[in-house]
Amino acid sequence: MLRLEKLEIRQGDFALAADWVLPDGAVCAVMGPSGGGKSTLLAAIAGFLAPDAGRVSWDGRELTALRPAQRPISILFQDNNLFPHLSIERNLALGIDPKGRLDADRRTRIAQVLERVGLRGMEARRPAALSGGQQSRAALARVLLMDRPLVLLDEPFAALGPGLRMEMLDLARAVLAGEGRTLLMVSHDPEDAARIASDIVLVDAGRAEPPAPAAPLLADPPPALRAYLGR
Ligand SMILES: Nc1ncnc2c1ncn2[C@@H]1O[C@H](COP(=O)(O)OP(=O)(O)OP(=O)(O)O)[C@@H](O)[C@H]1O
Q1: Residue 173 and residue 182: Cα distance in Å, rounded?
Q2: Is the beta carbon of 35 within 6 A of some atom in ligand 1?
Q3: I want to staple 43 with a disulfide (CB 3.0 to 4.6 A). Which of 49, 84, 164, 215 is the partner?
Q4: Structural domain of 117
């Protein structure tokens, strides 16, 4: 369970506060106006940004002072972070081992994960030899291999076009949430949230609101969300 306790983050004259709990296994969309603080919230949870006050914890263990790599968290960004000079197999090995070392057992695990994301047999390719959608699948495969319980998604599929984006969202939910991981996903598109989110965190006016069930919130949005949705 992710707990944000009286969290306060300031950047210049921008300030964001959050005080809530996200239950295990939730698929939670983070929504709100541009500049509202969605990426800032994720950066504080991931440990890229130190909060000015409050605490971040996971299953009762405080994370606030831990470096990003020490947290039980993996992150999927839009630019995938695949190393262009390394094969897909090496890129994925970095999800298992910081030096990307390979042995027979790791090769087998990588092949199995590639199969699950629809990239069977693509171990030897460089990222440039994959389509944009396939690169997203490879990045998703690396997150699977990292095996961390909380996955943060900062619009990883935004550049893909609507059909492919929906396909990737479905795949991400199936392979990540399907294994009991908790997902926190920045989303600009209510369709994305309606498709896969169980909950929504609304980030607006300096506050990240507690997660609320997605379906009723999207059916009858409060004013801040209504403006954001263009209704
Ligand atoms: N390094 C910084 N110094 C000062 N202010 C910053 C810094 N980084 C971001 N901000 C401000 O913090 C606020 C929140 O930015 P953030 O990127 O989290 O918003 P967002 O909701 O993710 O926006 P978008 O939907 O446009 O991506 C913005 O007003 C931004 O200008």
Answers
A1: 10
A2: yes
A3: 49
A4: 83-147
